Amino acid sequence: MASIRVTEILAAVRAGSPDGSAMAGGLVHACARSLPVSGVGLALRTAKGPAGSVVATDGGTLAAGVAAVFAFPRRVGAIHVGVLDLYRDAPGVLEAAELTEALSYADAATLLLLDLQTRADGEAMPLDALAVSDDRAEVHRATGMLSVRAGIGPAEALSLLHARAFAEQRSIRDLAHDVVRGTVDPTDEGDDP
Amino acid sequence: MTGPEAARPDGQSPGDQEGAMTRERRLAEVFVALADTLVEEFDVVEFLQSLTDRAVELVDIDAAGLLLDDQRGVLKLVAHTDESMRLLELFELQTDGGPCLDCFATGSMLANVDLAEARERWPVFTEAALGLGYGIVHAVPMRLRRQVIGALTLFAVDRSPLSDDQLGVAQALADIATIGLLHQRAVRDQVVLAEHLQTALHSRILIEQAKGVLAARAGVDVATAFTLMRSHSRRRGAPLTSVAEAVVAGALGPGELQPVDGAG
Question: Residue B209 and residue A77: Cβ atoms within 8 Å?
Answer without folding.
Answer: yes
